[in-house]
Amino acid sequence: MNAEDFDKKFDAGQEDIIDDLDLSTARRVNQEHRRINVDFPAWVVTALDREAARIGVTRQSIIKVWTVERLKAETGGSVNDS
């Protein structure tokens, strides 16, 4: 399918386009990841695990969410993605 036909199908909104996409190569723009290591005291890890279990997410997820929330609060919501 060429781009023009794909755009028409999408714009019409009457057919599901998901089967026309190759999601194996999809990526989020400006969402490059860089791995870091952080050491926490044992009590912090325990508290993170308890809260993560309470809301049904992983420890890594809660650390990411809380870090982004704090950065947005400190910068007035203008966190630079680059």
How do the SSEs run, as a string of H and E?
Answer: HHH
Proportion of residues in β-strands: under 5%
Q: Mean pLDDT, nearest integer?
A: 86
Give a quick account of the main beta sheet: strands, pairing sense, barrel closure.
none
Number of DSSP helical runs: 3
Low-confidence stretches: none
Would you report the number of β strands? Answer: 0
User: How would you classify the helix and strand content by structural class?
Assistant: mainly alpha
Domains, number: 1
Separation of termini?
Answer: 34 Å
Q: Considering DSSP H and I runs of 4 or more, what fraction of the residues is helical?
A: 40-55%
Radius of gyration: 20 Å
Silhouette: elongated
Strands, helices and their partners?
Blueprint: H1 3-12, H2 42-55, H3 59-74
Helix pairs in contact: 2-3
Descriptive account of the structure:
By secondary structure, this protein is mainly α. The chain has one domain (3-74). 49% of the residues lie in helices and 0% in strands. The chain contains 3 helices and no strands. The protein has helices at residues 3-12, 42-55, 59-74. Helix 2 packs across helix 3.
